UniProtKB/TrEMBL annotation:
GO terms for molecular function: oxidoreductase activity, acting on paired donors, with incorporation or reduction of molecular oxygen. Residues 20-116 form the Luciferase-like domain. PANTHER family: CONSERVED PROTEIN, LUCIFERASE-LIKE MONOOXYGENASE. It comes from the Bacteria. GO terms for cellular component: cytosol. This is LLM class F420-dependent oxidoreductase. InterPro entries: Bact_Lucif_Oxidored, Lucif-like_OxRdatse_MSMEG_4141, Luciferase-like_dom, Luciferase-like_sf.
Length: 273
């Protein structure tokens, strides 16, 4: 991979990102801003964030292959890469069966999309795949710079590293709630996690890592929520983030839950130095 992601980044939905936040996150020392959700094929937000900052990397987490034409995405990639060399990473993925009417043969659709990106000159070193299961993780190692798993635990990170091998990037997302009141923090975490428990790709993946049918049933067991949305003080959250790094992640993208993410990003930047 030509872009430098650093050890830590931030993950935030596109609606919660703006140049001012990007400038502050860069000042705090984070290496990458992940644009969450399904940003459109023009990648305009990524360009605005890069324009506003000096050296931080911007990545998409992720462009959805079902609603973003590969040719348009490739044009956007080349536009941004020419303007901001080695600072943009194209994250792509197949999304969720429950949210896409045309969701058929997703693995082959992802392979075909990568073929179109190849034909348009988008380098494998400039892209990562949203990958959970073994087959797509292997594809991420073979056809991209690595994997950007979402809603996972360190046990998945360890398994993903075994599949990928040593060289490819492994950059999981981790939700956090900077709050030492367990019930209040758990409620915040559950509000962010619960909707994903209606999506079979996530629940199937979590079942691989010692979570039961009861754990992954809506609204999620306390045990599940505590694992997927780390909570506590800065040191406790840092321990959970470091667990991904110790399990083989190169980089962790932190999703700060709550109304204002900046206090969390500031506090964790200190704790994780």
């Amino acid at each position: 991979m030509t872009a430098e992601l650093g050890k830590l980044g931030i993950w935030r939905l596109s609606t919660g990102l703006d140049p001012e936040l990007a400038i502050e996150v860069e000042r705090l020392g984070y290496g990458t801003i992940w644009i969450g959700g399904s940003p459109p094929a023009d990648l305009a937000l990524a360009e605005r964030l890069l324009d506003a900052t000096d050296g931080i990397t911007v990545a998409t987490g992720i462009v959805n292959i079902w609603n973003s034409d590969a040719g348009t995405v490739a044009e956007s990639y080349h536009r941004i890469a020419a303007k901001h060399p080695d600072r943009f990473v194209l994250g792509i993925g197949a999304g969720h069966r429950e949210m896409t009417d045309t969701y058929t043969k997703p693995y082959q659709a992802l392979v075909d999309y990568l073929d179109r990106l190849d034909a348009a000159g988008v380098p494998a070193s400039g892209r990562v795949l949203a990958a959970l299961g073994p087959k797509v993780l292997q594809l991420a190692g073979d056809r991209a710079a690595g994997a950007h798993p979402y809603l996972t635990v360190p046990a998945h990170t360890r398994h993903a590293r075994e599949i990928l091998g040593d060289a490819p990037l492994l950059a999981p997302e981790q939700k956090v709630v900077l709050d030492t009141d367990p019930e209040r923090a758990r409620a915040t975490g559950r509000a962010a996690v619960e909707m994903y428990l209606n999506l079979s790709n996530y629940t199937k993946n979590l079942r691989r890592y010692d979570f039961t049918v009861e754990d992954v049933a809506v609204p999620g067991s306390d045990r599940l929520i505590d694992a997927l949305a780390l909570h506590g003080n800065a040191e406790q959250i840092a321990e959970g983030i470091n667990a991904h790094l110790e399990a083989g992640a190169n980089h962790v993208s932190i999703q700060a839950l709550g109304d204002d993410p900046l206090p969390t990003f500031r506090t964790l930047a200190e704790a994780l130095r």
